Amino acid sequence: MRRALVPSRDVCSSRRSRSPFSQHYSRRQKTQVFEIGKSLRNAHEQQKLELSDIERATRIRGKYLRALEEDRFDVLPGTAYAKGFLRTYAEYLGLDGQRFLDEYNAQFPADEDAQVAPLLRVHRRRRLPDARLVAIPFVAAVALVVWRLSTGGDGGNHHTAFSPTPPRTAVTTTTSPPTTSTRAPAPARAQLAVAATRGPCWLSVRRNSQTGKLLYEGTLEPDQSARFSGRYLWIRLGAPWNIDATLNGKRAKLPTATSNAIVTPAGLKTYP
Q1: How many angstroms separate the CA atoms of 30 and 139, rounded?
Q2: Which of 37, 142, 155, 196: CA 20 to 30 A from 221?
């Protein structure tokens, strides 16, 4: 008779050790090779850079730079800040900023998909002729006609009838054009256009407030531009010194450092 083969204890234990959980854990250990904070810190130390020099060059506070190197993203003001600071810091060290953003998005996926606004070219509006330039010739023509009528008659009665009239007519005519050409009403919505004219700039735009609906988040590469419209816009600029902006057709003054801005039809206000 043939004897049945019984697996030994070592074989059984090895089979039990290869559970789905252990296989998943081993795969997870293999995939978690790229570390954001450690990579930044190693590049920082290898280049023998001072944190204060990096802070001045990138305009990112030192405590936020240390938080990035220690993977303490909860210290940063928000997701938009974390992505902007991360990309700026990585590219300053000569690293691939997009790779760091991809790793960040993989570790901290967004709750909702961002609606990206299309990139457009900025087209400057043509200025309409000043209403005063149109009104001045008209007033001069009316005054000339009145003067000719008041001084061109043959009879004395005709001259007497028109002599008191010209002063009132001239005053009424000269004051009416400015009244009819009053200021145009203020726009109801803010039309904001930004263009990367001097280099790349990371940009985040939300509606109403910092926690409002995300309209755009990404990097404007050189010669790229974007437009946004709304009654109240919140924007975050990573490198505002690299872009130009217009608000309702007029040039808008941008901050000189990484900061936030509130945009309304009345203007653009920045704050840290």
Answers
A1: 84
A2: 37
